[in-house]
Design a protein that fits this description.
The complex is a heterodimer of chains A (405) and B (333). With 405 residues, chain A is mainly alpha-helical. Chain A is 60% helix and 0% strand. The two termini of chain A are 42 Å apart. The chains are: A mainly alpha (405), B alpha+beta (333).
Chain lengths: 405, 333
């Protein structure tokens, strides 16, 4: 309400960053206001709409003070869109790609001046060049270069041979405690403590037991095995995450995410991926592994017919989203999953969920994004939303295929 | 002013109650499901809030600041404020989404179909207007992907041209190319036998079609399915016919008449889905008849006929006083 109120005072100058209700776009909040305007201005940290009464004036002032910069950002966005049109570029999401760059330009140069067209063309070219540099082609050439294949295979073999013996500790009670609070008041100290204690890696020990990783949807094998380097990949029909070749793992990330400014070059990406594949949960950072452990526990019971009660608050919330979905599907008059031949998918929702969560964490690692305690719930919940929306799309397609629509 | 009871359960805060799925105009908002009942259409929605922290950012826009605070506090009833800023915009989206699923197009009841290109275009536009409070962070892109820009060119109404221009702008902001989609007409109609001249009809009957068992736009919303048992030469045959919706262009249905399963094919000549089968020995006097589309399950309930009449009346009322370009265009058709 505070944000909306202060935002409305900025008027038409920020219309390109607003929706028809006059509110800042979701992406304006996510990419500009929250990280670039509010967080730097407010100490302690502003997070997701929860703000102490003592910071109300600060927040209002932060937005109003940023007014001129935001107006210039809006103008730059229009300029970059024109430049994009002139360059005939159609891929990527312009708001995702340009919003932060526009804010940067606004801070450095103020509103667009006489040289705006050139500056905008340069900025657009830069954003898209970063993408071109890391093309899938270069990745393929590097991985299949005969001069390197032996070296890379050796590296992969050694990485897997020297995998740390899993400690196989008892479940850290901190995981359940964190899940109880993460949707409302995530505890940053507990979050750090879990990572420092290696609570994520500890849970990975069980994945080596027969059938466990398969039960979680992460591999089709009885036990996870070392991946291949791989020679090709396609977006369709990618195997389960642990069964993907090094090529496929990087390919999936390269084609899904556009923000590659933060990504390493091809050789270090490949070497990094080889080491990552041999690490617990096949992820490199302990916080990511903790999120996998949390996701495993929070998703217990998903897709099963009414079972036992929820173990934690986060578990209850995910089960609740899933239950809600059946009402929503009926209200949207979607076909019945059982009768549409999608019964297995519906029952396998937990496996799909953990796969999606892994892929997202993997992507965050490649982009060098760290995960703070206040982001965990969005990750856990967002992965389920994404799986649920995919299932809806599939039901819609089943309906169209049926020749009914 | 809309009054609602507020109830707190272990995991949710309920503001009023969700409507039956056929009557439910839904918007999935961030942290809550908002629901208008089309048979009791108010300014403000009922809601099931499942994430109080997330709704805190926008709930005041829907109910007004005071009532929103009361919902998130400990009130057991609220009166939503008449001048809350956003409910009209969210309601418009909810009603478009409802129409997409449940619009009761019918020859029999004189309810014309809604023009799909306009419906999708307006849905995308309305989605973008309230994207800041939607659960799906890709809602706008998803809605834009359904828009057929070429088909919008067929309308002379300047407001449609304006809508189209707005959508093109929006699509550019989101990096989506608006598609002109090839229409998916099915040309391979099988001409189904619809009983023949010379058949001696022995008896017959009718049964309502469960809306939840078929998708929108396939079956005439106001008509019943009918069956006959007839003597054809030495054989006994049963025939089932289901009048098609005005916009139906093909498709199949499955019927179960007593113990007999029948596949019904769309017959463009008669505008009905028709199928026949040999009548089994000992064909019952009062066979139950159930019809559903592939992928759907019919679940008849006793309230259905009354609810449907009311929904058809609601649709007629909307056509008489259209609130969207989609409804205006349908009313003129």
């Amino acid at each position: 309400m505070l944000i909306a109120d202060s935002w409305s005072k900025l008027g038409d100058a920020v219309a390109p960053l607003s929706n028809a209700s006059g509110r800042p776009l979701a992406r304006t909040v996510k990419l500009i206001l929250d990280p670039l305007v509010l967080r730097p201005a407010l100490n302690p940290r502003f997070s997701g709409g929860v703000i102490g009464i003592e910071h109300v004036d600060e927040l209002r002032r932060a937005i109003l003070d940023a007014g001129p910069a935001l107006a210039a950002t809006a103008e730059w966005f229009q300029a970059l869109k024109r430049a994009r049109r002139r360059a005939g570029i159609t891929d990527g999401h312009p708001q995702d790609l340009y919003f932060q760059r526009c804010y940067e330009l606004a801070l450095l140069q103020g509103p667009p001046g006489p040289d705006a067209d050139e500056v905008a063309a340069e900025a657009v070219a830069e954003v898209h060049a970063e993408r071109g540099e890391l093309s899938v082609d270069r990745l393929r050439r590097f991985l299949t270069d005969p001069a390197r294949v032996d070296e890379l295979s050796g590296l992969l073999r050694r990485a897997w041979a020297s995998r740390a013996e899993a400690p196989g500790a008892a479940a850290d009670p901190g995981l359940a405690a964190f899940l109880d609070d993460c949707a409302r008041t995530p505890d940053p100290r507990l979050w750090r403590a879990l990572a420092e204690a290696g609570a994520g890696s500890a849970t990975a020990a069980g994945l080596e037991s027969p059938g466990v990783a398969r039960g979680l949807g992460l591999t089709a094998r009885e036990r996870p095995a070392a991946p291949e380097l791989g020679e090709r990949a396609s977006k369709r029909g990618l195997p389960e995450p642990f069964d993907r070749s090094i090529m496929e793992r990087l390919f999936a990330a390269l084609t899904t995410w556009f923000h590659r400014r933060s990504m390493a070059d091809v050789p270090s990406l490949v070497v990094g991926e080889i080491h990552r594949s041999a690490a617990p949960w096949q992820l490199a950072e302990e916080p990511s592994r903790v999120v996998m452990a949390l996701g495993r526990d929070a998703s217990a019971g998903l897709g099963r017919a009414e079972g036992a009660g929820a173990a934690t608050d986060a578990n209850a919330r995910l089960l609740d989203r899933w239950r809600r979905e059946s009402y929503v599907r009926r209200a949207l008059r979607l076909p019945d999953a059982e009768a549409s031949g999608l019964a297995a998918e519906v029952r396998g929702v937990r496996r799909a969920y953990l796969r999606r969560l892994w892929v997202r964490l993997h992507g965050r690692e490649l982009r060098g994004e760290t995960t703070g305690s206040e982001e965990v719930w969005d990750l856990l919940d967002g992965a389920l939303r994404s799986v649920v929306m995919d299932q809806r799309d599939r039901l819609k397609r089943a309906l169209e295929r049926g020749g009914a629509a | 002013m809309t009054g609602f009871a507020v109830e707190r359960t272990g995991t949710a805060i309920r503001v009023g109650a969700l409507a039956h799925p056929e009557r439910a105009a839904l918007v999935e908002a961030r942290g809550a499901l908002l629901c208008w009942d089309v048979l009791d259409l108010r300014a403000h929605p009922a809601a099931v809030i499942h994430d109080a922290a997330r709704v805190g950012e926008w709930l005041w826009e829907v109910y007004g600041p005071g009532p929103a605070a009361a919902v998130l506090g400990d009130a057991d009833a609220i009166a939503a404020e008449a001048d809350a800023p956003v409910p009209a915009a969210v309601r418009a989206l909810a009603l478009l989404r409802w129409a997409d699923a449940w619009w009761p197009s019918s020859w029999a009841a004189g309810v014309p179909p809604l023009p799909a290109p306009l419906l999708r275009a307006e849905t995308a536009w309305r989605t973008a207007a309230v994207e800041h409070l939607l659960d799906d962070d890709a809602a706008v892109e998803r809605a834009l992907a359904e828009v057929d820009a070429t088909a919008l060119g067929d309308y002379a109404d300047p407001r449609v041209a304006e809508l189209r221009a707005g959508l093109e702008d929006l699509a550019e902001d989101h990096g989506v190319a608006l598609a002109g989609r090839a229409s998916e007409r099915r040309e391979d109609y099988a001409l189904a036998a619809g009983g023949r001249e010379g058949d001696l009809v022995l008896r017959g009957g009718t049964a309502p079609v469960d809306w939840g068992g078929v998708p929108q736009g396939l079956v005439d919303a106001a008509e019943d399915a009918s069956w006959t048992l007839a003597q054809r030469g030495p054989d006994a045959v049963v025939t089932v016919a289901v009048p098609a919706a005005p916009e139906a262009e093909g498709g199949r249905l499955a019927a179960r008449l007593g113990e007999t399963a029948l596949d019904l094919e769309f017959d463009p000549m008669s505008g009905a889905f028709i199928g026949e089968a040999a009548a089994p020995r000992g064909f019952p006097a009062q066979p139950g008849l159930r019809v559903s589309a592939p992928g759907y399950t019919a679940e008849p309930d006793a309230d259905a006929p009354r609810r449907r009449d009311a929904i058809i009346a609601f649709a007629r009322a909307r056509l008489a006083a259209p609130e969207t370009l989609t409804e205006s265009a349908a009313a003129r058709s």
